[in-house]
Amino acid sequence: MYIRFSETLLREALLDTPVVLIHGSRQCGKTTLAQSVGEQLDYRYISFDDDNQLQAAKTDPIGFVQSLPERVILDEIQRTPELFLSIKANVDRNRKPGRFILTGSANVLLLPQLADSLAGRMEIIRLRPLALSEVAGQKNEFFQQLFSTGLGTGEVENNYDRLGKSLAELICRGGYPAAIARSTPQRRNVWYRDYITTVIQRDIQDIANIRNLDIMPKLLSLAASQTARLFNSADLASPFSISRPTIREYLAVLEQLFLIEQLQPWHSNRISRLIKTPKMHLADTGLACALFGVNSQTLWQDRTLFGQLLETFIYQELRKSADWHDEPLSFYHFRNKDKVEVDIIIEQGRQLAGIEIKAAATVKQSDFKGLNKLKDACGKQFTAGVVFYDGETILPFGEKLFAVPISLLTPNTMKAPKS
Question: In order of start, what are the domains of the chain with their CATH numbers?
Answer without folding.
Answer: 7-126 (3.40.50.300), 132-409 (no CATH)
